[in-house]
Amino acid sequence: MNVLSQAWGWLTTSANWSGTDGIPTRFLQHFEYSVEAVLIGALIAFPLGLLTGHVKRGGLVVTSLANVARALPTLGLVVLLVVVMGVKFRAVMIPLVALTVPPILLNTYEGVRNVDPQLTDAAKGMGLRPWQVLWRAEVPAALPLILTGFQFAAVNAVANTAIAAYSSFGGLGRFVIDGLATTDYGMVAGGAFLIVIAAILNLVFFAVLRKLLISPGLRQKKPTT
Amino acid sequence: MRSAGLFPHIPSYLGTYGSLIQQQLTMALLSVLFGLIAALPIALLCVRYPKIYPAVVGLLTVIYSLPSIALFVLLVPSTGLTQTTVIIPLSVYSLAALVPNIVEGIRGIPEDVRLAAIAMGYTGARRLVAVDLPLAVPPIMAGLRVATVGNVSMVSVGTVIGVGAFGALFTAAAQLSRSDLAVTGIVVIVALALACDLLLVVAQRLLTPWNKRRSA
Lengths: 225, 216
Prior knowledge:
Distance between the termini of chain A: 35 Å
Oligomer: heterodimer
Number of domains of chain A: 1
Number of strands of chain A: 0
CATH architecture of chain A: Orthogonal Bundle
Mean pLDDT of chain B: 90
CATH class of chain A: Mainly Alpha
Radius of gyration of chain A: 20 Å
Strand content of chain B: under 5%
Low-confidence stretches of chain A: none
Number of domains of chain B: 1
Largest sheet of chain B: none
Largest interface: A-B, 42 and 50 residues
Largest sheet of chain A: none
Distance between the termini of chain B: 51 Å
Number of strands of chain B: 0
Low-confidence stretches of chain B: none
Helix content of chain B: over 70%
Structural class of chain B: mainly alpha
Shape of chain B: elongated
Number of helices of chain A: 10
CATH superfamily of chain B: MetI-like
Number of helices of chain B: 10
């Protein structure tokens, strides 16, 4: 119970809850960086996924890209860009975004590509234009998988933001890295628990989003990681 | 500095490229192996008792979303600054990638095939080993590939607690401001991961000779 008591001791020290390196500030930073990474990643990946899925082409490129991205070590990318570009927001944001693109791209592609052709044919038969078929039939039907893609992207973003703290970046990873540097294990464990809480809140958010957005006529489809 | 290019001179305290590669692969592949050993019985239970499956998947999703850096440092008091501390979380991540694929793989076996196997006298464990698992090889391999590629890369995060194998190049790159070390680390890790991936693809071809004719 040493870990728990040390973490608890650190978490309940009121001094740790205020200031620019306090828990609320770091929590908000973590949230902000993760959301930004997912949104920028989505701007790139979502249209590409819709396009490749709609025309049912480019699958090999999309899946290979996802595979290579999974092999990319976040820590290495962060260190490389910071060494080359200096400690800049952009230097850390690039690797974070790079690792949110593949899950959104892959799942959007797979989701849209695998929509039941009867559904799209019916939509076409009703006189919908191609982009109306996409928005009114394909996207709603593919939504379970699309949301799974966004969820994986967000999971990556939360985890990688924590790792990015290794190079003087903000967020909750700061506590882990600084705690290790100053051998303050209470801070390390407290920070790790906060990261775990952030990860779980992220999942809760997506569970709620799924309840709200997915048409009740659709059942959960198998995710593609 | 004797060598240049892809394999720059590395600080001597890191050891050699060979030893770093060996550590990286040992930790990554042992994690996949432990994950697979644990995943099989869990998946079989989920096939037998479908009611527990959604809860198991939910739990695995939660575990999978927990960042490795947090799990590593939380384990340090129990398992120390050792390879075990890195292997345990990565094994659990592998489990999360494998269980759903094994379950879907076995569930996806066509009913007529299952009935034919039963009619031929395959029951219990023999049917599992001789019929069910071989037919479920493609989805199981898909899970193994995701787990392996991810693990080979994620081992490097262990360097924050001093057991990162190739990740040590990133720590050194940051401390010495040497981009060449970071590039080498990234290139070698991606190459190792994709090489393992390729081996699994080849293994799958060899394990499922019947698929070649069908897909060709």
